[in-house]
TrEMBL record:
Presence of the UniProt keyword Transmembrane in the record: yes
Name assigned to this protein: DUF2065 domain-containing protein
Domain of life: Bacteria
Natural source organism: Aurantiacibacter atlanticus
Parts of the chain that traverse the membrane: 7-25, 45-65, 72-92, 112-130
Keyword set, alphabetical order: Membrane, Transmembrane, Transmembrane helix
Length: 132
């Protein structure tokens, strides 16, 4: 278990691992993100469950991460948590239109998003490891 000063770093590490893993999955199997979003768009129960999980994870990150304006990583992680919580609410409230927009966005630029996710994942992992 880390100290409270390390919470932002731990969250950044695991978010980086998530982004890295998702990017590698998309690069290995191009179009999988678009297919996943298409499945979410068609399946009401999956949309609802996804909205609850994203809302819960975002709220947990937002509430657990310390807000310290002198620590840029703390501020970024807190904002990311709040953004995730908002995304979960949007999925619950406007699931089909919201995910339709996302699928159109991903469908046109799969490789660009995967490479961006790869870079973000590597940066988050490096930042986290440098702070321990």
């Amino acid at each position: 278990m880390g100290h409270s000063a390390d919470i932002s770093s731990w969250i950044a590490l695991f978010m980086g691992l998530y982004a890295l893993g998702a990017a590698v999955g998309e690069i290995r199997s191009p179009g999988s993100w678009a297919a996943m979003l298409d499945g979410f768009e068609r399946n009401e129960a999956l949309r609802f469950l996804t909205g609850i999980v994203v809302l819960a994870l975002g709220a947990t990150i937002y509430l657990v991460n310390p807000w310290d304006t002198s620590d840029w990583l703390s501020v970024i992680i807190t904002i990311m948590g709040g953004g995730m919580a908002l995304e979960g609410v949007l999925i619950l409230a406007f699931g089909r239109p919201f995910l339709h927009f996302a699928s159109k966005l991903f469908g046109k630029i799969d490789t660009v998003w995967a490479l961006l996710s790869l870079v973000i994942g590597i940066v988050l992992i490096c930042v986290a490891l440098l702070r321990f």
